[in-house]
Amino acid sequence: MKKVMIMGVGPGFGLALAQKFGEQGNTIVLVARNSGRLTEYQEELAENEIKASCHAVDVTKHEQVQQLFQDESEVDTLIYNVGNTALDDPLTSSLDDIKATFETNVLGCIDACQQFVNTKRPQTILVTGGGAALHPSALTTTLSLTKAALRSYVLSLHDVLKEKGIYVGLLTIQGIADVGAAMQPIKVANAYVEAAQQRNNAEIFYPNNQGSKLSEFEQLQQLAKDPKTVEKVLKNHPEFAKYLDYFKN
């Protein structure tokens, strides 16, 4: 039985990843900042006969990440699914906010990967990227620049670690959770399972196995003609509310 650590477990992709990898017979290590929710997820997985442990960790705190991998030194697969997806623009975003997002989206991943490769049996690293890395826009300024930096790091890491027999894969997710059939979390999670099994491509584009011509937010703008879609998006991403006019234009 293998052990899979998922950093960034929430009600969307993170929990779906835990369920799918758990169904494969893996023991799951749940990592997020909210200890209360982690306990709920652990109990939910237990109801489905999936064994899981949980750790409340802030990925921007090096000491906490270091302690995590000391406590969980026998993880085979690391999935970095942490991400700040707040929308902003290039003129009004504060430097403090940009730094905080960079620490979460990029430096947290680098720290986790460096700690993981020095544990007992690292075999696989999967990282959640995003279409914003390929389609910068005024609305996604910091998200785009951090996802682009993350993409650069992960692709470089792939080249270095393949010589050591460790597979690194970037999952470039080109959509928003629960918006459209392809973006149902359990379907997205299947792509991670396949990547871990196939262990070949440095970057996996989801959906359609190729880069999209539109960013996820441009896709959303098209879908926003349907009020029900807007309602669903705002339910899952209330931080998008102040950009509601963009979705309607």
Automatic annotation (TrEMBL):
It comes from the Bacteria. SUPFAM superfamilies: NAD(P)-binding Rossmann-fold domains. Pfam families: adh_short. Coiled coil: none annotated. This is Short chain dehydrogenase.
